[in-house]
Amino acid sequence: MTEDIKSHPLLVIGLDAGDPVFIEAWVNEGHLPAIASVMKNGSWGRTCGPELVTEHGVWISLLSGISRGQHGYYYFRQLKPGTYELEAVTGLDVNAPPFWTHLKDGSKKALIIDAADTRLTPGLKGIQVANWASHHNWDPYHFVTASEPPEIMDEIRRKFGPRLQTIENHKSTFEEDVRIYRRLLDNVRKKGEMCRFLIKKDRFDLSVMLFAEAHAANHQFWKYHPRNNDSGEENELTHAIRNIYRAIDEEISLIIEQYKNANVCIVSSIGMEDDFPNAGLGEAFCRKLGYQAAPQANGVYFRPIDIARKLLPDSVRVALSRRLSRERREQLVADGFRSGTDWKKTTAFSLPVSYTSFIRVNLRGREPEGIVENGREYDTLTNSIIAELKQIIDPVTNEPAALNVYKTTDLFNCGPHESLPDILVEWRPGKFMERVVHPKGELTQQKPEFFRRSDHSSHGFFALSGPSVGAAGNIGEIELIDIAPTFMSLMGERAPGVMKGRALKLG
User: How many CB atoms lie within 10 A of CB 174?
Assistant: First the structure.
């Protein structure tokens, strides 16, 4: 740090799923001048670490400084500890308060706008807005639009309208995509105007505001990006992702102008990559190699849903499920998972997911009918599973089907975790693998109902400049859990013990 930091406000602007490859390329091409200025005058790099092994929970660890190994959140559908029940989980269910909660007993004022996966903090001086224009605010059961003080939300609605939604539709037509694109551009403009409206209300020591439109644009227009567009013909959406990033950059510039002598951070959660939902291979692997036992063949099925599972082909069941509500589909997934395994004969099982496969050991004392002992038996089994996973080959490319296989105890330096899966499998991106081969047999998967050609990479973006930061340029990889302690340091505050990272040295 280059000078006394107490008099300098901290401005943090987040790009939800702001891809570092896109950002760096478009900065070099002159499309993102505001972000380029922060990079040129300060320090920047890509975020890394075990927290980025899966998308869900990244913002939680970034903003709280609390490791995934501590908070245990990894997916929107998780195994309820101590059961074989699946339950819906969001960041709001996690005990990992963001770094600004440690300011509530002090004199500093904060402006918090749409911080991902966080609740309003009682007693925090300043203004807070939740879920007016966040990535998940389409979900009214979990993400309620609110503000502190409450009257702020009334002002926002009167001046800027109701909450801005960034719904994605992976089955949309080109015409629908054009409408979504124009709507997202309008949302970016409104979000910037709303942020500047609140900035003028007071002098804030800390300002945090997130733009969710980058996340929606990445997924919605991925197929039109020049490197993914097989036709090679340009249209209105060829540069849609870049143009959304440009619109956000323009708003960033206008926001930065509202602050004097501020330390400014531009940060994203995760990046993007060309990927397909291959996680069905995880269950195929566990079934084929005998880790996950099927129920007895002579089992009796009385319910219509059980009869349908026995008689209808997977393709028909997938088609029928599209007609059901999200809540009903989740109920069916949970019911099928619970009843589709003989737990007393299962040593390890795959959780129902889309991209990264999650495999969990049926551990005695942790699972209701666990049969694997902790210690040597657990270690032997997990090591064996990992070795077997690495033998799976994509016969089309003759390459390993699993790009990376991680063991939770190694990632987070812990014992078998109460909530987290024991093994995470990152399948090779770039294609949907209907069939792969293992020395012990062929593994197949059906094309799932949720089929999208994009998912998230394991790096985000980080840039920081200002009077308290030296112009070090590219500083390489930055551990995600070091970011919150860095914010605390920039505000002249001591990082609490729950934060396991260290403040970056940016002098």
Answer: 11
With a CB cutoff of 8 Å and minimum separation 6, the contacts of 285 are: 291, 350, 357, 388, 389, 392, 438, 443
Sign of CA dihedral 165, 170, 176, 177: positive
DSSP-derived pairing of the beta strands 126-130 and 357-361: unpaired
Ranges of H-type helices in 55-150? 58-64, 68-71
Closest CA to 337 of 309, 374, 318, 297: 309
Transcribe 194-253 into DSSP letters: HHHHHHTTS--SEEEEEE-HHHHHHHHTGGGSTTT-TT----TTTTHHHHHHHHHHHHHH
Tokens matching residue 494: 């001591």
Q: How far apart are CA 200 and CA 210, in angstroms?
A: 18
Q: Do 111 and 199 meet the contact criterion of CB atoms below 8 Å apart? A: yes
Rounded CA-CA distance 381/389 in Å is 12
**In order of start, what are the domains of the chain with their CATH numbers?**
10-67+96-262+455-490 (3.40.720), 275-294+341-452 (no CATH)
Which amino acid is present at 78? Q
Tokens of 147: 């503000």
- Is residue 68 packed enough to be buried (19+ CB in 10 Å), middle (13-18) or exposed (0-12)? buried
> Among residues 164, 169, 158, which one has the least CA distance to residue 219?
169
pLDDT tens-digit readout, 84-123: 999 999 888 999 999 999 998 888 999 999 999 999 999 9
The answer to whether the beta carbons of residues 248 and 213 sit under 8 Å apart is yes
In angstroms, rounded to a whole number, what is the distance separating the alpha carbons of residues 296 and 141?
38
CA distance 434 to 426: 16
Q: Is 128 helix (H, G, I), strand (E, B) or coil?
A: strand
**Residue 502 CA to its chain's centroid (Å):** 23
What tens digit of pLDDT does each residue of 43-71 get? Answer: 999 999 999 999 999 999 999 999 999 99
pTM of the model: 0.91
User: Could you tell me what percentage of the chain is helix, strand and coil, using 3-state DSSP and rounding each to the nearest 5?
Assistant: 35, 20, 45
- How far apart are alpha carbons 188 and 114 in whole angstroms? 13
**Cis omega (within 30 of 0) for bond into 352:** no
Q: Which residue reads 């393709």 in tokens?
A: 315
Reported as a pLDDT band with limits 50, 70 and 90, residue 233 is confident
CB 58 within 8 A of CB 51: yes
